[in-house]
Specification:
Helix content of chain B: 40-55%
Number of strands of chain A: 5
Number of strands of chain B: 12
CATH architecture of the domain at 62-235 and 256-318 in chain B: Alpha-Beta Complex
Distance between the termini of chain B: 50 Å
Oligomer: heterotrimer
Structural class of chain B: alpha/beta
Strand order of the largest sheet of chain B: 3-4-5-2-1-6-11-8-12-7
Order of helices and strands of chain B: HHEHEHEEEHEEHEEEHEHHEHHHHHH
Strand content of chain A: 15-25%
CATH architecture of chain A: 3-Layer(aba) Sandwich
CATH superfamily of the domain at 62-235 and 256-318 in chain B: Spore Coat Polysaccharide Biosynthesis Protein SpsA, Chain A
CATH topology of the domain at 62-235 and 256-318 in chain B: Spore Coat Polysaccharide Biosynthesis Protein SpsA, Chain A
Radius of gyration of chain B: 23 Å
Radius of gyration of chain A: 13 Å
Chains: A alpha/beta, B alpha/beta, C mainly alpha
Largest interface: B-C, 46 and 43 residues
Chain lengths: ~120, ~475, ~350
């Protein structure tokens, strides 16, 4: 089963998580869902995913801290896509400085996300 | 003849105490009713406000968080991080190091890559001079941070320095050891922006007790009820004061105090009235009274706003010693403020401020402990005379006690119906038990502190700034 | 029985005051007992409620996702979708469940765009949830109306424009605010037409929210703002000034210059700031000539303007003001002089 590619999704909106899980699993990925940054870091350490999707604003540990943990503590170059809401431009810049690979501004189209995921995992 | 004088005295005293009690019970009842109405109204209005819609906007007004620090080396790095993580877009943080004798400044410099900068201070408010200078970070991640190092001058002086430094239109004055929730700024600024027919001069926030809550990296992870009775008693005290008392006073537009540890101000007006008074230990209350007085004299329509949401969490004293010294200071602060502005009291020229807020504070905050002590002395006097009707005494004491407990339980209800912060099973019963025990376990100490506060005030006993472990905030 | 008798007797023989005190004690005690029991009930109710909400939310969440993924090309509504529609329609007869369904739809609607967002909106109509929102518009309670308008906005229901616009001058400002947000969110700049008719002040909080919404659109073609700059409602003028600033409305500079002598000080100050940003040189000369008649705040604003627009000819004016007793004026003039001479 090693050919199933794992993706960790950190997002505090459970409905959106579920939607993306369905959508991406249809494309053949294995989605691991975290409701906050803390869970995300645990999942990343446990499963070593091939891609990380994370919201910027989350309770307890923000998406920025997740990125910084992956890049600086775990020293991994796993591609990361961040989700941001309108008006978080400053945060997005910080995310890129920390090593994010791509970002999607909310509201976004799930189909667009699939295209970007595929592009990064090619 | 002697006997009749004594009898008359007894009757007079009895009626005075009786009248005071009736007034106290009546005013508390009225406050509780008003607060119930105001709470319902507030919850309705705010149930569908989306604060996210404003937090990100760069056109939203600029706010400075001013946090004075005195020998806070142990926790300052963490605390500043919490202040820097607000979700509001347009704000900065000014830490005023008030002549600390520890390594606070060095720690800040190292942790936040600070460098000294040239800064021309417009001394709109006189303060103690700068010591080492003004610092800003070279790391863009901390561009919101300014640290000012000045000679020691006390909390009020440090806040005034922060006011001089700030270039923004609104200031949030806060104790550096408070934990601020991420959406605190947009909630506190709201009253200033949404009212257009009167001037909002300040907004007060609520303090919640952070003892025993789990906090990590400046974030509140879990809310717990502390173990010690003294801490639990203070939780109830805070709920009563904030959810019942202040809620009602804000409806009446009669708020006289904004917690020194958490309040937002219109900077322009604070500067016009001359900033914080450095000669009192009750600078938070004194400032509001002075600002109100100023607005009354200018005959401008104004209001002091109030936000009951749990946004700011602070460690309450957990030993009787620190509790007593804190309350001693509050007592002196209240006396000083009321004396300084006695012209306002009972003066119809000052409207509700003079006829409602001031008298209430005078009788039920300032005089209550004094009256209570007189009552106890009088009672002892009666025992000595063997003139006590024990059944009457019992009737009075049980009524007073039950009323206190009832009022506390109302406060618990108010909390449950609004914010329901203590969700864990079993907490309800613990809070109830505490409300029955509180009059015995913490009240005597608070009364003692109030009395020593009075004594200290009249004997002009100087109490140094450095002695304070926690600064006053209620 | 005897104790009871004695108590009655004792009570009858005490003075009225003491009687009152005893009665009060009893009332307090009874209230405490009642409240204690009720508190226990309330807390477990709140706890249970939270769990039930979470359960239903989970259920509706998967229904919604299932609905979104069970469409097909051939049919307008697939059989699976119809089953979900019927289920949600049934559930929404219950107020408690309806609220959870709507909030589930909203939670997703706010985060995604494109086809799926449209499907969610379709579901909102198919389940007749929209009818409940419309019914709430007829409520007598202001906050019910306000939440209904908010729901219609978030689900982008343009079809109820007529029903919503009826509230545009409603006396309750919370309702007014929701109407304005509805108009602007759904109709972009065209929605701003309400500015022509409102007579009550538009609060600062409200203005910021409206501008935030406007900035999210791709189409940034601003309509003619001159009438709003000339509005008799001062808050509309202030709002229009913000529009002029954000959208760099150089075309309205003449109207802006007129506003320099508006009777409202805040408008005059804002006008100076906008003119400074648009770098309108005429403004400088007008203001310089009457500098000493300006209020302090206008003087500060003017000096900010001068910072961008100074010329050699302003030197005399600046020299005059380096001895100004006001710190900020002195400081600002010195700063400009310094750059001027470099």
């Amino acid at each position: 089963m090693s050919d199933v590619r794992k993706i960790v999704l950190a997002e505090d909106n459970s409905t959106l998580s579920l939607l993306l899980k369905f959508r991406l699993e249809k494309e053949g990925y294995n989605l691991l869902i975290a409701a906050d940054g803390k869970q995300a870091i645990e999942l990343i350490e446990q499963h070593d995913p091939e891609l990380i999707l994370t919201d910027i604003m989350m309770p307890f540990i923000s998406g920025l801290e997740v990125i910084s943990h992956v890049r600086n503590k775990l020293n991994k170059q796993t591609p990361i896509i961040v989700f941001s809401a309108a008006g978080q431009e400053e945060m997005v810049l910080k995310a890129f400085n920390l090593g994010a690979n791509d970002f999607m501004g909310k509201p976004f189209s799930p189909n667009e996300l699939v295209i970007r995921v595929k592009r990064l995992l090619r | 003849m002697n006997a009749s004088i004594l009898e008359i005295t007894v009757i007079i005293f009895n009626s005075l105490f009786f009248i005071f009690t009736i007034f106290a019970i009546a005013s508390y009842t009225i406050l509780a009713i008003i607060s119930a109405f105001e709470t319902v109204e507030y919850m309705k209005k705010n149930s569908f406000v989306n604060y996210n819609e404003i937090l990100s906007s760069i056109i939203s007004p600029s706010i400075s968080i001013i946090a004075p620090a005195f020998n806070e080396s142990l926790s300052i790095i963490e605390n500043v991080r919490s202040l820097l993580s607000s979700h509001y877009a347009n704000y900065d943080v000014i830490i005023v190091n008030d002549g600390s004798t520890d390594d606070s400044l060095e720690k800040l410099i190292n942790a936040y890559n600070l460098v000294k900068i040239d800064f021309l201070i417009n001394e709109k408010l006189p303060t103690k001079p700068i010591r080492n200078g003004v610092y800003k970070s070279i790391n863009p991640a901390f561009e919101k941070l300014t640290v000012v190092d000045k000679e020691n001058g006390g909390k009020a002086d440090a806040l005034n320095m922060g006011l001089n430094i700030s270039k923004n239109s609104y200031v949030l004055c806060i104790d550096v050891d408070c934990l601020l929730l991420e959406d605190a700024l947009q909630k506190m600024i709201k009253p200033f922006l949404e009212v257009s027919d009167e001037k909002i001069i300040a907004t007060g926030g609520v303090l919640r007790v952070a003892n025993s809550c789990s906090i990590k990296d400046g974030k509140l992870l879990d809310i717990n009820l502390p173990k010690k009775m003294i801490e639990r008693a203070q939780i109830l005290e805070y709920l009563r004061a904030f959810l019942l008392g202040r809620m009602a006073w804000s409806r009446l537009n009669g708020l006289l105090v904004i917690s020194g540890a958490f309040g937002m101000f219109d900077k322009k007006i604070v500067i016009e009235v001359g900033g914080y008074d450095t000669n009192t230990v009750g600078e938070d209350m004194e400032l509001i009274v002075r600002m109100r007085k100023y607005m009354e004299e200018k005959k401008e329509k104004y209001r002091v706003g109030y936000i009951p949401d749990p946004l700011c969490w602070t460690e309450a004293p957990d030993t009787y010693k620190t509790l007593i010294s804190q309350r001693n200071r509050w007592t002196r602060g209240t006396i000083e403020t009321l004396r300084k502005h006695r012209k306002v009291g009972f003066n119809p020229k000052y409207g509700a401020l003079g006829l409602l807020s001031y008298p209430y504070w005078f009788f039920f905050e300032r005089l209550a402990p004094v009256i209570e002590v007189f009552g106890i002395l009088y009672f002892i006097f009666l025992i000595v005379l063997d003139d006590v009707r024990w059944d009457y005494t019992f009737a009075f004491i049980s009524a007073a006690y039950l009323f206190t407990v009832l009022f506390t339980i109302l406060a618990i209800f108010s909390e449950e119906l609004t914010y329901h912060q203590y969700k864990k099973k079993g907490t309800g019963i613990k809070l109830l038990i505490t409300s029955f025990l509180e009059p015995f376990i913490s009240h005597p100490f608070i009364l003692y502190a109030a009395i020593t506060g009075n004594v200290d005030y009249y004997l002009k006993k100087e109490k140094g700034w450095g002695k304070m472990i926690r600064r006053g905030f209620l | 029985m005897e104790i009871y008798q004695n108590l009655i007797e004792y009570f009858e023989n005490t003075p009225t005051i003491i009687q009152v005190v005893w009665i009060m004690s009893c009332v307090f005690f009874a209230s405490i007992v009642i409240l204690t029991i009720y508190l226990k009930f309330l807390r477990s109710h709140l706890r249970k409620n939270e769990m039930t909400v979470a359960e239903y939310q989970k259920e509706y969440e998967s229904d919604l996702i299932a609905y979104l993924y069970s469409g097909n090309e051939e049919e307008e509504i697939s059989t699976e979708q119809q089953i979900i529609i019927d289920k949600l329609k049934n559930c929404s007869a219950d107020k408690f469940k309806r609220r959870i369904i709507v909030s589930t739809l909203l939670r997703l609607r706010n985060e995604i765009s494109g086809e799926m967002a449209e499907s969610i909106q379709k579901l909102y109509f198919q389940t007749k949830l929209v009818d409940y929102a419309l019914a709430r518009l007829k409520s007598k309670k202001w906050h019910i109306i306000a939440t209904a308008i908010r729901e219609l906005r978030q689900l982008q229901v343009k079809e109820v424009y007529d029903e919503v616009i009826a509230f545009v001058i409603h006396p309750k400002k919370e309702i007014q605010k929701e109407v304005q947000l509805y108009l602007v969110t759904l109709f972009n700049f065209k929605g701003l037409e309400f500015l022509n008719i409102i007579e009550t002040p538009l609060s600062e909080w409200n203005q910021i929210q409206l501008l935030e919404v406007l900035q999210r659109f791709d189409d940034q073609e601003l309509p003619e703002i001159t009438p709003w700059l000339r509005s008799t409602n001062d808050s509309v003028v202030i709002f229009a000034l913000k529009l002029a600033k954000i959208y760099n409305q150089f075309e309205v500079k003449d109207t802006l210059l007129e506003l320099l002598s508006h009777q409202n000080k805040n408008i005059r100050i804002d006008a100076i700031n906008v003119l400074a940003q648009l770098q309108v040189i005429e403004a400088k000369n007008i203001l310089k000539s009457k500098f000493n008649d300006l209020s302090k705040e206008e003087q500060y604003a003017f000096l900010k303007l001068l910072e961008n627009l100074y010329e050699i000819s302003d030197e005399a004016f600046l020299l005059e003001n380096i001895i100004n007793e006001d710190f900020e004026i002195k400081f600002a003039t010195l700063k400009i002089l310094k750059t001027l001479r470099c």
